[in-house]
Specification:
303 residues, mainly beta, M1 Pyruvate Kinase, Domain 3, four-stranded antiparallel β-sheet, 12% helix
């Protein structure tokens, strides 16, 4: 068992953002860190006719919608569809939306975007759901805070994430899961199943569960000296729903992953819920750049 005063050297191996909540992710070599998380992460979201957010739980084909950034636009690609290009500064009309327990002001992205999502997601959608879909953008003037019960009173804003600015996962945790899947003759899975923002190396499986703090020293590839320190604080285990069962390549629901997670990842901290990865908040480093390969250290906490 590590001593609380020990530091754990680590490496930032992968950076991911998910511009449209519950659509495919985008791996980046570098990303700006904001107090709300990584820049452009969960900036857009799909809602139903009542303004309630929808996800792969209801519409697994969302996994096939791939984002990329080109020439000042968010471009969305999906099989059999012409691409949808949205200016990064575009918004049409205000709309009230709900994400979990939070009701917030957002901006509707217009009829063209709504029709594009409806056309692609209608096959296999629950009756009536696809007809009322709208794409919305987070209003930057809104301040949506993470649950202060978990942040110990720290005000931690986020956009359309489930509730916290960042999700942290170790590559060792993923390797442990894939080892268990291999013993059952199942295909290994990638980190995109769990939608992390930061994938960390240099630790044992699920060490991220026990970290009190993560410190990174931002060093750009062309910089002579490290930049200001980045301080991230893991605050809550990430409870898992059915979305990791959705194959990101085919959008088909599987049945192998959840039983394996249930066999060893029931978490007493969340009354037995299955957890995988840690939600984290930004304590220091707003405006700094993160880079794949940057080094850091974690400090141990008590969970």
């Amino acid at each position: 068992m590590p001593h609380a005063d020990d530091a754990l050297p680590l490496t930032l191996e992968q950076l991911w953002i998910y511009p449209v909540k519950s659509c495919a992710g985008l791996r980046l070599s570098s990303a700006a860190l904001l107090d709300t998380g990584l820049e452009w992460d969960r900036t857009w979201m799909l809602v139903d006719a009542s303004g309630e957010f929808v996800s792969q739980r209801e519409l697994p084909r969302m996994a096939l919608i791939r984002p990329r950034f080109r020439q000042g636009h968010l471009e969305l690609l999906a099989p059999g569809m012409l691409s949808l290009r949205l200016p990064l500064d575009a918004a049409e009309s205000p709309r009230r939306v709900r994400v979990w327990d939070d009701e917030v002001d957002a901006w509707d992205m217009g009829d063209l975007a709504a029709q594009w999502f409806t056309d692609f997601l209608a096959p296999g959608a629950p009756q009536g759901l696809a007809a009322g879909l709208r794409l919305v953008r987070f209003d930057p003037d809104v301040r949506r805070l993470s649950a202060v019960h978990w942040t110990q009173g720290v005000e931690a804003p986020n956009q359309f994430s489930d509730g916290f600015p960042l999700l942290v996962l170790s590559s060792a945790s993923l390797a442990e899961l894939n080892g268990r899947l291999a013993l059952l003759g199942q295909t290994p899975v990638g980190p995109e199943r769990f939608r992390p923002n930061l994938v960390l190396g240099g630790m044992e499986a699920h060490d991220e569960d026990r970290l009190a703090d993560i410190h990174l020293r931002a060093l750009a590839p062309d910089a002579a000296a490290p930049g200001p320190a980045v301080w991230l604080q893991p605050v809550k285990p990430c409870a898992r729903c059915s979305i990791p069962d959705v194959d990101p390549q085919t959008a088909e629901r599987g049945t192998a992953l959840s039983p394996v997670l249930h066999s060893y990842r029931q978490d007493r901290r969340l009354m037995g819920a299955v957890t995988f990865g840690m939600n984290a908040i930004v304590r220091q480093g707003d405006g700094q750049m993160l880079y794949e390969g940057m080094l850091g250290a974690g400090t141990w906490g008590v969970w």
